[in-house]
């Protein structure tokens, strides 16, 4: 249960202000079909994060324990700094003509490659060594954060400063890194 909860919290916080959350906002605004957009986000996230979790578990099985701990801690500290640099939406959703579900699925899958949330999934899977639980947690975190963008969109960002959301996300990464070093 710890793997699911921590994966959810970390990815939900990380996704706030991320390019894929901005992409969710753009797609929801463009298509006006929130359930189709959410289904596309879910499909892309499950596929992408399952592959990332598999990679993380493989890394955990091949890298010696002490080296893995240091690598994971440094990774989380790096993410703590990276999260302080907000993403910008660089999607090209206006040119897609495949409908809400397929456009969202394809754009999200490729937008997640090398993204903070995907790399976090790799690190979390290396830490917990459980593909299923980490994928469940990270997918739930993505659905929560991107669901906020789809459902509430611009109203939410008017109420909560992205600066404070990024600071909170950064702090979570620091805590994960310190926690790994302390065990």
Automatic annotation (TrEMBL):
- State the family it belongs to: Belongs to the GDT1 family.
Membrane topology, record value: Multi-pass membrane protein
Q: Does the keyword Zinc apply?
A: no
- What InterPro entries does the database record attribute to this sequence? GDT1-like (IPR001727)
What is the official name of this protein in its record? Answer: GDT1 family protein
Report the superkingdom from the record. Answer: Bacteria
**Any GO molecular function:** metal ion transmembrane transporter activity
- Give me the segments passing through the membrane: 35-55, 67-84, 96-111, 131-152, 164-182
Q: Where in the cell is it found?
A: Membrane
Tell me what organism the protein belongs to. Answer: Bdellovibrio bacteriovorus (strain ATCC 15356 / DSM 50701 / NCIMB 9529 / HD100)
| This protein's record includes keyword Transcription regulation | no
| Cellular component aspect of the GO annotation | membrane
């Amino acid at each position: 249960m710890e793997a699911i909860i921590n994966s959810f919290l970390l990815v939900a916080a990380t996704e706030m202000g991320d390019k894929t959350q901005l992409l969710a906002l753009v797609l929801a605004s463009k298509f006006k079909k929130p359930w189709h957009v959410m289904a596309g986000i879910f499909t892309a996230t499950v596929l992408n994060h399952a592959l990332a979790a598999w990679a993380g578990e493989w890394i955990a099985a091949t890298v010696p324990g002490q080296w893995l701990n240091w690598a994971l801690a440094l990774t989380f500290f790096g993410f703590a700094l990276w999260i302080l640099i907000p993403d910008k939406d660089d999607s090209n959703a206006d040119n897609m003509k495949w409908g809400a579900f397929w456009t969202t699925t394809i754009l999200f899958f490729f937008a997640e490659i090398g993204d903070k949330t995907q790399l976090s999934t790799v690190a979390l899977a290396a830490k917990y060594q459980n593909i299923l639980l980490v994928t469940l947690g990270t997918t739930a975190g993505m659905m929560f954060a991107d669901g906020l963008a789809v459902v509430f969109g611009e109203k939410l960002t008017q109420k909560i400063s992205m600066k404070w959301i990024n600071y909170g996300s950064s702090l979570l990464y620091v805590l994960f890194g310190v926690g790994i070093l302390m065990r």
